[in-house]
Amino acid sequence: MTARIIDGNALSAKLRGELAAKAAELTARGTQPCLAVILVGGDPASAVYVRNKVAGCEKAGIKSLKFEYAQDASPADVLGRIAELNADPSVHGILVQLPLPKHFDEKAVLEAISVEKDVDGFHAENVGRLSQGQEAFVPCTPNGVMEMLKSIEAPLRGAEAVVIGRSNIVGKPMAMLLTAAGATVTVCHSGTRDLNFHTRRADILVAAIGKPKFVTGDMVRPGAIVIDVGINRLSSGPDAGKLCGDVDFESAKEVAGAITPVPGGVGPMTITMLLANTVESATRAAR
Ligand code: GUN
Question: What is the extent of the structural domain holding 35?
């Protein structure tokens, strides 16, 4: 039997429709949600992500402001821009696209963003709030994964969840969210001794490692829910240039109970949750 496909495009379309209605209502009351996006340098993948974020805003009736800086930009200029945006009451969300050039102190930049406008959920205070179960902006990719699990009514309480990857953007917040939902969570990473031992006992397996087709069908427990966070562009072989995830979809779908595709899985959900956080921030500002 092949797995149920969890369609991130369809779920995104439904949620974005609801967000557009909320944005229209806020706008009619005099508060149009507004997201400011800062892009430093010419990384082509980052440019595509930023373009998709801006386009997502436009379609949902959310205003977007885009600030682009050269690769050799001065950190002081970017920090000055963040200070201006923090002080501007018409701006509800501020996002600095990562990675930043090497001469930037990434942590200092993320901490400069006002906690109330940190729609990426990367500020240490939001991370701390999330870890303590307080209201916080939740990082968009893991938040999108939780929405996908909710959409298929995945049983989380008592489930064995295995997250591969321990990044600040995905792995760590993913583990916090699954723990809060009652799952027993194992975080695996490059130092994990017997990865297959862990993956094969997972009811929910989240792959966020950045290695194309790394998780193969033999690593998946029959019936498991497999969530593929990876977005990799294949550089060689017959599919060169195509996108693929961290999961070998073809072999994993024969074993899993449900699986997210790439493209069309977690990717669109990340932007949807960014729009949701921006609308939430504007809602708070309008109170
Ligand atoms: N780079 C990779 N993913 C993300 C993200 O979710 N937000 C930001 N700001 N940068 C990223």
Answer: 30-114
Q: Is the CB of 143 under 6 A from ligand 1?
A: no
Q: Is 233 annotated as a binding residue?
A: no
Instruction: State which of 63, 80, 114 marks the end of a domain.
Output: 114
Are 151 and 262 in the same domain? yes
97 is catalytic: yes
Model pTM score: 0.97
CB crowding 207-244: b at 16 or more within 10 Å, else e: bbbeebbbbebebbbeebbbbbbbbbeeeeeeeeeeeb
Average pLDDT for 89-109:
98
Residue 229: per-residue pLDDT: 98
Give the chain's domain count: 2
Which ipTM score applies to this complex?
0.94
> Both 149 and 263 in a single domain?
yes
Residue 100 lies in a domain: yes
DSSP tag of 215: B
- Phi, then psi, of 99 in degrees rounded to 5: -80, 155
Model confidence pLDDT, tens digit, residues 171-227: 999 999 999 999 999 999 999 999 999 999 999 999 999 999 999 999 999 999 999
Residues 259 and 167 in one domain: yes
Looking up residue 83, the CATH number of its domain turns out to be: 3.40.50.10860
Asked if residue 4 belongs to a known ligand binding site, the reply is: no
Angle (nearest 5°) at CA 257 between 201 and 210: 65
- Is 32 an active-site residue? no
53 is catalytic: yes
